[in-house]
Specification:
The chain is mainly β and 306 residues long. It is built from 1 helix and 29 strands.
Length: 306
Amino acid sequence: MKKKILIFIIVIVVVIILGVGIYMNYNKKEDAITPIVTESTELNVEYEEETSSTSYTSTITLQDDNSSVDGGGATVSGNTITITSAGVYYLTGTLTDGDIIVNANSNADVTLVLSNVNITCETTAVINGIEANEITITLAEGTTNYVTDSNSYSYFTDTTDNEPDATIFSKTDLTINGTGRLIVSANYLDGIVSKDILKISNSNISITSNDDAIRGKDYVGINNATLSITANGDGIKSTNTTDTSLGFVKIENSDIDIETERDGIQAETIVNIADSNINIETSGQVSNTLEDISSKGIKAGTEITI
């Protein structure tokens, strides 16, 4: 039987009273209960402005075996579109088995504007950020965008780590913004992953994932977002274990529904939540360490702040 956890962050007094039962999280070093506090370590997360420009580096029209690029900085090979230069790229159309690769230089800022995109990929990630300084995915206003992968990958750009391992994957900083909708069907493993920083702002995103839904290594920042998550793994997590100033999850001004088999929200260091409505339902399994499989509503290594 699943245990249902309702967390109404706006009503702080109620959260603190319920916290004894909801936030029974353990510090993996000392096996001590993680404190729930109302004043926390300051976490600075800055969100980029959404692009308002209609002057695009390229307009990319997606169509099976007939995709086109109007402009520069991108190439088409079969049903694979590769972004190779900094710029803002407008994408629209459908691919029934295709993918988008970002492989620019390490100083390049790349923005993908998704406008009624519907991409399914049978062999690898739908969007794979191999190299760039930062990748931004902007959901165009008034649009609904779909990305779907298969239950097995046969192509990895990093064979050492078997990556990508998510429907939307980035080895560098990743931001998702814009007022459009994004629907992620992650049949292989994870939904949205950044191996560095992951930020989501002003967006409406639904994720169904075979493992974790949202995973950022250095930290996950969520602001003014509406998220619906169904995951066989964790809902939202940050995984940096080597730097105590990182590994946190910060959520502000957001509405989030999470249904998971494991932890709803997990951070190696701090979970910080403000002015948000969060509904978490987990499978109810509980363990005493972060390494073990567990299904807590919210779990943090050092601090939970509401």
